[in-house]
Amino acid sequence: MLAILTTHPIQYQVPVWKGLAASGNIPFKVFYMSDQGLETRFDPGFGKSLSWDIDLLGGYESEFLDTHRGSQFDSFWSLRLKRGFGRALRRMRAEVLWIQGWQVAAYWQAVFQARRSGTKVWIRGETNARSNASGGGRQVKRRLLRQLLWCVDRFLYIGEANRQFYLEQGIGKERFVPALCG
């Protein structure tokens, strides 16, 4: 069983979940930490109110987690898991937890809870070497991120720049899997 953890229903991820469900090859469940995107609301990333014109929840199994939520959706502390996620992974007999990055504290919590429960961790992040090139505290952030990445079993890279980022973090090529669609 595959458990997928993501921040909220995202219009470009949902077709992947629907396609995975339609194939019937892998039993899985998507866990969402927020319902952002389901109703028309202001999206800070786009700078305007919007709603998506596709069904974001149909065609695959999903569940909304009860999480601690911060006041700003774009901060690291905006989403934190409440106790019990590791137990949920064990209960569903998850062999793999697939997370969609490391930008919120909940992803970090999930990685450590998965490792404690004996669940393998896969990650599909969108960072590349160029997007992480500067900024205050870069060395501290890089050291902390490396600690997290060493707990990951497979890296679902989305392109050459993303793969290069992982190589620069000291991740061996044997842990890479291309994240291809279609």
Account of the protein in words:
This protein is an alpha/beta fold. The chain has one domain (2-178): Rossmann fold. 28% of the residues lie in helices and 22% in strands. The chain has helices at 14-23, 85-91, 105-117, 138-149, 160-168; strands spanning 2-6, 28-32, 41-43, 48-50, 62-64, 67-69, 79-81, 96-99, 120-123, 154-157, 176-178. The two termini are 22 Å apart.
Quick overview of this protein structure:
The protein is α/β, with parallel strands linked by helices and 182 residues long.
Short key terms for the protein model shown above:
globular; two-stranded antiparallel sheet; Rossmann fold; 182 residues; alpha/beta; 5 helices; seven-stranded parallel β-sheet; 11 strands
Q: Element order, helices and strands?
A: EHEEEEEEHEHEHEHE
Label the structural class.
alpha/beta
Query: Could you give the order of strands across the largest sheet?
Result: 5-2-1-8-9-10-11
| Structural domain count | 1
Bin the helical content. Answer: 25-40%
Count the helices. How many? 5
CATH architecture grouping: 3-Layer(aba) Sandwich
Contiguous low-pLDDT stretches (5 residues minimum) are: none
Query: What does the radius of gyration come to?
Result: 16 Å
Kindly report the name of the CATH homologous superfamily.
Glycogen Phosphorylase B
Average pLDDT figure: 89
CATH class: Alpha Beta
**Overall 3D shape:** globular
* Biggest β-sheet strands, sense, barrel: 7 strands, parallel
Strand element count: 11
State the end-to-end CA separation: 22 Å
Under CATH, the topology can be stated as Rossmann fold
- β-sheet strand percentage: 15-25%
